[in-house]
Amino acid sequence: MKIKILKFFLVCIFFQSLFASDIIFIGIAGGSGSGKTTLANKIHQQFLEDSIIISQDNYYKPLSSFPLEAQGKINFDHPDAIDFLLLKEHLLQLKEGKGIDEPIYDFITSDRKKETISIMPKKIIILEGVLIFTQESIRDLLDIKIYVDTDSDIRLLRRIERDIKERGRSFEGIKTQYLESVHPMHLAFVEPSKKYADFIVPRGGENQIALDLIISHLKQCMH
Fold first, then answer.
1. What integer pLDDT is reported at residue 167 of this predicted model?
2. What are the pLDDT digits (tens) for 116-171?
3. Hey, which of 9, 34, 140, 177 would disulfide with 150, CB 3.0 to 4.6 Å?
4. What is the DSSP string of 19-47?
């Protein structure tokens, strides 16, 4: 019991020291379908006026930026598919109190839309994405790094449902991509990036105890 109390006390100190700055950057990573977005949205719902969510998925490099002969061979689950330079630039702008125009990525056309999302800095900035912990330049900007750790079978089922309903994919296409790139890239990049996390949260947004702890300490800092 004394050890648990000590751990809780140390966590409190850790949160308070991080939240001394004007803007709190929270990074939420984990495998595809792990529940990152759910966790990010639940945190955001508690701080609607003081938080924003930025999605790594909107920073996929547009298909048109690749040579024509390479466009059919792009591995969208490799870090090289993400425009981390632009993402870093936008995070730095927000840190400086400047607004950004976040791109919008169209998963059906594999390109960026002409429209963008106008985002102004808030007290809490939540960055969520599969590969964000693989980049030191991004990790260095994050005050809190949370890794959502969910069973691979559950992640796969969630991905199948999402890609069919939201992205117009066929089951055969989803299966091929999972076997050829999603799973191998998870083992090569995503899973190893877990070591950089400050907190590992099983089940993501469904883990109410972890969610309550995060929200409780964020609320303390907002006063």
1. 81
2. 999 999 999 999 999 999 999 999 999 999 999 998 888 989 889 988 988 888 89
3. 34
4. TTSSSEEEEEEESTTSSHHHHHHHHHHHT
* pLDDT tens-place string over residues 181-207: 999 999 999 999 999 999 899 987 789
Its pTM stands at: 0.85
Go through the domains of the chain in sequence order and give each one's CATH number: 16-221 (3.40.50.300)
126: left (phi over 0), alpha (psi -120 to 50) or beta: beta
Q: What is the DSSP string of the chain?
A: -HHHHHHHHHHHHHHHHHTTSSSEEEEEEESTTSSHHHHHHHHHHHTTTTEEEEEGGGGBPPGGGS-GGGGGG--TTSGGGB-HHHHHHHHHHHHTT--EEEEEEETTTTEEEEEEEEE---SEEEEE-TTGGG-HHHHTT-SEEEEEE--HHHHHHHHHHHHHHHS---HHHHHHHIIIIIHHHIIIIIGGGGGG-SEEEETGGG-HHHHHHHHHHHHHHT-
Tell me which amino acid residue 159 is: R
